[in-house]
Design goal:
By secondary structure, the protein is of the alpha+beta class. The chain is built from 3 helices and 6 strands; from the N terminus they run H-H-E-E-H-E-E-E-E. It has a 6-stranded mixed β-sheet with strand order 2-1-6-5-4-3, covered by helices on one side. The chain is globular.
């Protein structure tokens, strides 16, 4: 019996991996961040560089462990193309950091993602960010 994914199934799976990535990133759990990527996954973020594959991704994300409470607020996720095995999505991101004076916006930008569905889960094949406002 063959089952075809619906747009709703794909969109919910994409949103779930984005949430898992974001929460792991904000908690400083590098291994959990890396687990959201395909083994040959690529991440390209301004100020962080481009990293390919789990080993390079792990090394990069271990350097990003937060020293203060932080949150990446990912909103307006739109799955723009999809099939049972691949999806592309665009999301807005606002990065806030808690400082001595309270929470403050540090970066506003957009993620462009290509995701693959493998082993029963969606994972990033390519995650690319652009920033429209960086303080």
């Amino acid at each position: 019996m063959s089952t075809r994914s619906t747009y709703t199934d794909v969109a919910e799976g994409v949103r779930a991996v984005i949430a898992a990535y974001t929460q792991a990133l904000d908690d400083g759990r590098a291994d959990d961040v890396v687990a959201t990527f395909c083994p040959d996954g690529i991440c390209a973020i301004p100020g962080m560089g481009t990293h390919v594959g789990h080993d390079a991704l792990r090394e990069a994300y271990q350097r990003l462990k937060p020293r203060r409470p932080q949150r990446h607020l990912v909103v307006n996720t739109l799955v723009t193309e999809w099939s049972d095995r691949e999806a592309t999505a665009v999301s807005d991101v606002i990065f806030i950091l808690q400082g001595d004076a309270g929470w403050a916006i540090q970066v506003v930008g957009r993620y462009h993602d290509t995701l693959h569905h493998t082993d029963g889960a969606w994972r990033f094949h390519r995650r690319e960010a652009e920033f429209v406002d960086a303080r």
